[in-house]
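Interim report, section 4.2 (structural modelling).
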Amino acid sequence: MRVPRRAAFALAVAFSALVLSRSLSSQPSALTVLSKDGRRSLATTVINEQEFVALDDLATMFQLAVREDALGMTVSYKGKTVVLTLDQALASVAGRLVSLPAAPVRGPAPGRRWLVPAEFINRALALVYDTKLDLRKPSRLVIVGDLRVPRVQMRYEAAGAGARLTIDATPRTGNVVAQDNEHITVKFDADVLDIPDPGLALPAPSSAQGVIQAVRQADATTIILDVGPRFGAFKASNLPIDNTARLVIDVTAAAPADAAAPPPPIAAGPPPDLTALIQTPASIRTIAIDPGHGGDDEGAKGAGGTKEKDLTLAVARRIKGAIEARLGIRVLLTRDDDRRVPIDERTAIANNSKSDVFISLHANASLRPALAGTAIYSAAFAQDAGDTARAALAPERVQAIGGNVRDIEFVPWDFAQAAHVGQSDTLARLLEAQFQNRVPLAKRPVESAPLRVLESANMPAVLIEMGYLTNPDQEKQLAGAEFQNTFVQAVLDAIIKFRDVLDERRGGNQGAGAR
Ligand SMILES: [Zn+2]
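Predicted structure of the assembly:
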């Protein structure tokens, strides 16, 4: 089945449509005019990188009278006038000259309306208007009257095992901080918050990952921190700095959790009308564990009767229990009973659940009973190690297929996994490091191979051959609780290390795709 490839194509189409609609909408943008009566939209037109607004829109919105003559326009409000002269980046306001960034221009057809630079609002109109007018271009706002619209700036830093969020509100604005199970809520004593250029200020520091999942604006005056599985406690302190009220929220991590209670599930994302300000999602939220084989596909079988399909399911369940209890990461099993699951369905389960890691569990078999040890495989692709890996591995595998125990198929290599090979290799190395000195390792513990079960996984993915069931000593070992516990602990530790690696990379890239 080629479903993953089609899905990737559909995704690419959807993405380019998104990019297209964004670039179209960036041209005719709008300012938001805020007043006691509510908010209205004021369309703008960009010409030569200067933003203009239509004079007749302003006339409607602010009850202005506009008279046009051969030399320009006269704009009147309650007996005071602003005179605009054609071809001049100037306005005469009640007899006083003020500069504008550009001269008035005719807009495009139809209409050919007169356009004035947006700065006309605060440099000219504000001087004749009887209510305060404040143009804040960076935040796309025109504030009419004495609304309390503090400018809010946020900074997020790692602080030991916790994090610190600093929120500066200018001019000084009071706030109330409250907490429920999943959020810390900061409500400002204001009419609207002015949050310029949000999103860029917050890296996702690795040590704080899991303490705070996201910081977002919930409504006009409320900022919400979504707490993560590692959240312990927080302390909020206010201190005034000149005209700014600074709120510092220090969040500490919980003490290393015992296995007693899994942390609460991560809150769902905000509804669409809530502007997500800063997303610092955990880099690993879901892990898919794939117990190899099942049903009439028994996989490898040891002389003592251990079946690969049973072993993989038992270990998968242990890994799920450990990770969910101790890391608060959701773990999906591609099967949780003794049934056959087609290979494509296994990766589809991982892809559809947007799993961040895919681990397929197997046990090995060989015609050489002496072979033993754990090996970790990542996908190989034609351009890199693929050909040599296939050449090196194929004979032994084919021989094994003759023995009716081999489960791995070789496939073409042009699938979703190609985008994740680097991270898959990293995960494989981290697993190897954790297995080292804990469980017996194969002669070549980390290898790349063209494995069908990994090819269409759209996330970092590895396959672990836990050991050889055809080695009688190792069969006993694999079936025992001691090995399984040690193995599971090593996987858990590798996942923690891998999460740290992802967090660090993510931290370095933060802001690249924001807004
Ligand atoms: Zn297998």
